[in-house]
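Each field is listed here:
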Amino acid sequence: MKRTFKNVLGLSFAALLAVSSGSCTKEQVSNKETTEQTANAEISTLKAYMSKLVNVPATEIQFKEEKQVFTMFGVDQISKKDLAEAYYYSKKQQL
């Protein structure tokens, strides 16, 4: 049961990101700007953003430095680069 919950949670998170990023037309952003933002992204900020997206306490989200990926319940969920891009895109939409 716990394993099924993890799979469903992972799939729902992936679907949420796909819908939120695919529903709007993407603006062309230079690779240099995106790379700089991703490199400068704070892990704590990204954990808080991910926590808000999937409604899971931030304490349940870990960051694996060697893989540069965020995990929940021991399962890899999203890379730092992808989450940072989603975070900065959502900030642009709020302005």
